Amino acid sequence: MTDFVIPPAAIASLTVQGSSARFPVHRIYCVGRNFAEHAKEMGAEVPARGTPVFFMKPADAVVPDGGAVAYPTATTDLHHEVELVVALGRDADGEIALTNALDLVFAYGVGLDLTRRDLQALAKEKRLPWDISKGFDQSAPTSTLVPAAQAGELSTQRLWLEVNGELRQQTLLSEMVFGVAEIIHELSRLFALKAGDLIFMGTPAGVAALQRGDHFRAGVDGLAEFSGHIA
Ligand code: MN
To answer: What is the DSSP secondary-structure string of the chain?
Structure first.
């Protein structure tokens, strides 16, 4: 057994439908501008084929199954972005071909890519990194994961988010610019993908502010649903 000079941090993890065992989170990759209408509302261009926009969050940004999510420090404009979440169950051995990409998928879920929108706007304006606007503590509330075998094929299911009972965001998964296989292929050219990686697939139009006390409910029809509140 390895001796550590300080106790190692706990492994961040998510619950799995039909299992008492948990999914250990290795990395969180996120896709930006993956829905044309959201790119438009952000005043951004939809990326050309072969060049999706990626950023990351730390593994321990996950908030398993929602619940109480802390309003982050250093912002007055916390935004919701509801997204399909893909969980990898196998390591990639280098670059993964499009045709083999889905073999890596262990499960699917739904999550929120919480964003300090004011700090992101500043970062864009000053050409600074997005980390502090995207990769903060508790910035990735995520549902129970549904094993791919139980999820069936993803095609035109509806991805949606309600805040205080009001529908804020909804789209069909078929509206994604880059599909799951394409994103896994592109990520595998840039990073050594591992079992335990999560991919947040990008958000549709309708992003808006969350306030303290707001209650959210998010889902993909026929797949997963979860809820929580901003504490
Ligand atoms: Mn996002």
So the answer is: ----SSPPPPPPEE-BTT-SSPEEP--EEEEES-SHHHHHHTT-PPPPTT--EEEEE-GGGEEET-EEEPPPSS-S-EE--EEEEEEE-S---SSPPGGGGGGGEEEEEEEE--EEHHHHHHHHHHT--SHHHHS-TT-EEEPPBEEHHHH---SSPEEEEEETTEEEEEEEGGG-SS-HHHHHHHHHHHS---TT-EEE----S---B--TT-EEEEEETTTEEEEEEE-
